[in-house]
Amino acid sequence: MDEVNEGGAELSTGAGRAGVSERRRRYVGSRITHLREDCGLSLEELARRVGLLAGVMKAVESGRRGVAFECLIDIANELGVTASELVDGME
């Protein structure tokens, strides 16, 4: 069970942290998918441009896999946005 600190923020005890990480990965993945489609890029083309295998990019977009910050910057650059725009609005 997660606890709450004086400011009302949850203090993760472990199990909740995994759920938060998964939600964050799904959020970023869906942002990447939406922006990629807006740019008219296929998943395979974006993967090639940033040096990832298409299967890895698919896992990133579905939220099953995260990426290193440097890779997130590369993805953002290819999509014409900043890395912060990929995570903007994420809880």
From TrEMBL:
A family per Pfam: HTH_31
A single MF term (Gene Ontology): DNA binding
A GO CC annotation given for this chain: cytosol
Entry-linked InterPro entries: Cro/C1-type_HTH, Lambda_DNA-bd_dom_sf, TransReg_Diox_bact_type
Keywords on record: DNA-binding
Domain HTH cro/C1-type span(s) in chain numbering: 32-86
Superkingdom as given in the UniProt entry: Bacteria
PANTHER family per the UniProt record, alphabetical: HTH-TYPE TRANSCRIPTIONAL REGULATOR (PTHR46797), METHYLPHOSPHONATE SYNTHASE (PTHR46797:SF1)
Protein name: HTH cro/C1-type domain-containing protein
